[in-house]
């Protein structure tokens, strides 16, 4: 789910990679893929456990909704405020620093005795999990040009598997060993990752001497200059609202009547994320052949139908409702991931020299949408129940489709 900012930095300890250079060692590629997966997994680890940890900490449903909200908001802030630093400083040092902070934040979450401490840990976890946004461009930088696509594709597969497996593993471990064990194990894995990265990664030369303020200022300039960037960001952000509202309330809903399911069963719904892994290469091929605009509309349409179908739940048995939830999760995950790949294709073609910053703008919008979806979803669920969450997700998916079907403005002079 994360964009691939292609840069032209080179390692300070190695010559610039060329098309004839040998491929990266498989062990290093595997390490980068594992690192991207573990970093992004920390964003979703808490979601299947909300029902269990809420009872343990004595937190209300509304307070629990703030856990994924702050995690996603922290990630959005991290992309906005920290991701541009990869162009200005040695990316290896940034990766190691974020790994240390992320491990500490996860340990704090596991040691929380009240919801307040857990909320602080969630925000810091989101900020530091932008480690994934440093690992992917590091892989693109280290890979020789002839092998860059293959290396980045492998790392992105690791990232998608991290999203897919995080809910499944955390739900299973929480049910059998306790939710605190999940946080401690996640912290240990990030600490080991940091140690391995410290030994394996070379140093990276900065690509710009711009001040921090100038880097951030260029993001606003890109936003003002390119209408295509604004449309892509708005549409993906709207899709993310429904996505996050669903996953942020699913565990609490399934924990109660009539299901009374444990966290491992809730986590199994994360297997629907396999649809996203399938969608990524398929959507890319369709975008190449028929244009990314068509793929964005297809993805938004599929997401709308999937969310709207869940309104049938009151007329189904408990068993039928579970099947409907599973099928809908597969369908909207497929649609949202396809739309994201197409939006990335559109954004990367706007201004090739600013791909990292364009990527940052797109993903800030996406994770602001996720934070908003988690917040609204928890409030709506507490006040009016699951159908209200369904209505929110359907409405935002419909809004994304309207944005994509709305006639585009004239291209900007530099687009």
Brief rundown of the structure:
The protein is an all-alpha fold. It has helices spanning 26-41, 50-57, 61-81, 91-111, 115-128, 131-142, 148-177, 179-200, 212-225, 227-255, 263-268, 274-290, 292-309, 318-348, 355-384, 386-405.
Report the sheet with the most strands, covering strand number, pairing sense and barrel closure.
none
Number of separate helices: 16
> What are the segments in which pLDDT stays under 50 over at least 5 consecutive residues?
1-15, 411-415
Rg measurement, Å: 21 Å
The secondary-structure class comes to mainly alpha
Beta strand count: 0
Roughly what fraction of the amino acids lie in strands? Answer: under 5%
Overview of this protein structure:
With 415 residues, the protein is an all-alpha fold. 74% of the residues lie in helices and 0% in strands. The chain contains 16 helices and no strands. It is globular. The N terminus and C terminus are likely disordered.
Keywords:
415 residues; mainly alpha; disordered N terminus
Give the secondary structure arrangement, pairings included.
Elements lengths: L25 H16 L8 H8 L3 H21 L9 H21 L3 H14 L2 H12 L5 H30 L1 H22 L11 H14 L1 H29 L7 H6 L5 H17 L1 H18 L8 H31 L6 H30 L1 H20 L10
Helix pairs in contact: 1-6, 1-7, 1-8, 3-5, 3-10, 3-15, 4-5, 4-6, 4-8, 6-7, 7-8, 9-15, 10-14, 10-15, 10-16, 12-13, 12-14, 13-14, 13-16, 14-15, 15-16
């Amino acid at each position: 789910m994360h964009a691939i900012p292609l840069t032209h930095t080179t390692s300070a300890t190695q010559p610039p990679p060329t098309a004839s250079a040998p491929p990266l060692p498989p062990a290093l590629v595997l390490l980068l893929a594992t690192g991207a997966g573990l970093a992004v997994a920390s964003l979703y680890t808490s979601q299947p456990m909300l029902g269990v940890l809420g009872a343990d900490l004595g937190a209300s449903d509304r307070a629990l909704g703030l856990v994924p909200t702050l995690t996603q908001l922290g990630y959005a802030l991290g992309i906005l405020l920290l991701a541009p630093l990869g162009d200005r400083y040695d990316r290896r040092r940034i990766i190691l620093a974020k790994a240390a902070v992320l491990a500490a934040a996860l340990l704090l979450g596991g040691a929380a005795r009240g919801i307040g401490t857990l909320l602080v840990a969630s925000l810091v976890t989101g900020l530091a999990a932008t480690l994934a946004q440093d690992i992917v461009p590091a892989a693109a930088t280290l890979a020789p040009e002839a092998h860059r696509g293959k290396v980045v594709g492998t790392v992105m597969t690791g990232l998608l598997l991290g999203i897919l497996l995080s809910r499944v593993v955390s739900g299973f471990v929480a049910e059998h060993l306790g939710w605190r064990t999940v946080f401690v194990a996640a912290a240990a894995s990030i600490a080991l990752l940091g140690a391995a990265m410290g030994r394996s990664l070379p140093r990276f030369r900065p690509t710009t001497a711009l001040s921090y303020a100038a880097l951030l200022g260029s993001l606003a300039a890109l936003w003002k200059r390119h209408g295509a960037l604004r449309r892509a960001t708005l549409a993906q952000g709207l899709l993310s609202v429904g996505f996050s509202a669903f996953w942020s309330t699913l565990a609490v809903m399934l924990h109660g009547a009539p299901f009374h399911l444990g966290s491992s069963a809730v986590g199994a719904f994360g297997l629907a994320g396999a649809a996203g892994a399938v969608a990524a290469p398929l959507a890319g091929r369709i975008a190449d052949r028929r244009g990314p605009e068509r793929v964005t509309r297809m993805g938004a349409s599929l997401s709308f139908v999937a969310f709207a179908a869940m309104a049938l739940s009151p007329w189904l048995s408990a068993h039928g409702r579970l099947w409907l939830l599973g099928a809908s999760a597969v369908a909207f995950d497929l649609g949202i991931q396809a739309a994201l790949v197409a939006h990335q294709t559109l954004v990367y073609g706007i201004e090739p020299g600013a791909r990292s910053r364009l990527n940052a703008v797109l993903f800030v919008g996406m994770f602001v949408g996720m934070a908003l979806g988690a917040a609204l979803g928890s409030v709506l669920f507490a006040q009016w129940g699951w159908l209200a969450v369904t209505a929110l997700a359907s409405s935002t998916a419909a809004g994304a489709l309207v944005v994509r079907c709305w006639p585009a403005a004239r291209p900007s002079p530099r687009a």
